[in-house]
Specification:
- With about 200 residues, the protein is α+β, with helices and mostly antiparallel strands.
- It folds into 2 domains: about 15-80, no CATH class; about 80-195, Trafficking protein particle complex subunit 3 (Muramoyl-pentapeptide Carboxypeptidase, domain 2, 2-Layer Sandwich), CATH 3.30.1380.20.
- It is built from 8 helices and 4 strands; from the N terminus they run αααααααββαββ.
- A hairpin with an 8-residue loop joins β3 and β4.
- α5 (about 80-95) packs across α8.
- The longest helix is centred in the N-terminal third of the chain and has 17 residues, at about 20-35.
C-alpha cells in the first residue's frame, strides 16, 4: 500500500465545528476502560501539579504527560491508525536510532542500544532473551503507557516500529517487532518480540 492511498482514505475530514462528532468522541473517551481512562489521566495531571512522581525512576516532565495523553486519545479513538504509526516508527528508527546500533548479529545490535531509552527518560529496558533471529526485550515505566488503566490495547506501536526500523537498517535484513505485553493492556511492563526474517 502506498502512503497516498492511506491519505486518500483519511481525507474525509469532518468540519472543525462538527458537534455530533465531538459529542461522540467525548462519550467514547468517558467509556474507555470501563470509565477509568479519564480519571487516571486526571490523577496523573494532579500528581504532576503537586510535584509527586509519575514514574518511580524518571523525572516529571510535562512533555511526558502531554505526549502520552495525546497518543493515548488518538489510538483509543482510532485504533485503525496503529499500523500506520508502526510504519512511521520504522522510518524514525531507520533515520535516527539505527546509527546507535553496532554489531552484525541481533544480539550485538540489541545490546548496543539498550541504554538509549533511559538516557532519554523513555523507560528502563532489558533484553530478556536473544538467540539467532529472535529476541525479546522489556520496557519498564514506559513513557507511552505507564500508569494507564487496562484499555485492552497495546499502545507502544511507535516503540515497536522504531526498533524494527533501526534493527533492519543495522542488520540489512527485514525485521518485525511485535508488542506482546503492554501496561495499557493491564501488564506490569511492555514486552516486545523481535524477529529477523
Amino acid at each position: 500500500m502506498k502512503l497516498e492511498q492511506v491519505r486518500a482514505q483519511l481525507r474525509a475530514a469532518p468540519s472543525r465545528l462538527d458537534g455530533e462528532l465531538f459529542a461522540d468522541i467525548k462519550r467514547s473517551l468517558q467509556e474507555q476502560a470501563g470509565g477509568r481512562l479519564l480519571p487516571a489521566m486526571k490523577e496523573g495531571l494532579a500528581r504532576y501539579e503537586a510535584g509527586l512522581p509519575l514514574r518511580p525512576h524518571f523525572p516529571n516532565k510535562m512533555q511526558y504527560l502531554y505526549m502520552r495523553d495525546r497518543q493515548t486519545f488518538t489510538f483509543v479513538l482510532f485504533p485503525e491508525l496503529l499500523e500506520v504509526a508502526y510504519q512511521a516508527g520504522r522510518a524514525i528508527g531507520a533515520a535516527f536510532d539505527a546509527p546507535r546500533r553496532r554489531g552484525t548479529t541481533l544480539a550485538e545490535a540489541m545490546a548496543s542500544a539498550i541504554d538509549v531509552a533511559p538516557t532519554f527518560d523513555y523507560g528502563r529496558q532489558e533484553v530478556v532473551k536473544v538467540g539467532g533471529d529472535l529476541a525479546v526485550y522489556r520496557t519498564y515505566e514506559c513513557a507511552d503507557c505507564y500508569g494507564l488503566p487496562d484499555l485492552g490495547l497495546r499502545l507502544c506501536v511507535y516503540e515497536a516500529g522504531v526498533a524494527a526500523g533501526a534493527l533492519e537498517t543495522a542488520l540489512g535484513r527485514p525485521v518485525e517487532v511485535e508488542e506482546v505485553r503492554c501496561c495499557a493492556s493491564g501488564d506490569p511492563f511492555d514486552e516486545f518480540e523481535v524477529r529477523v526474517g
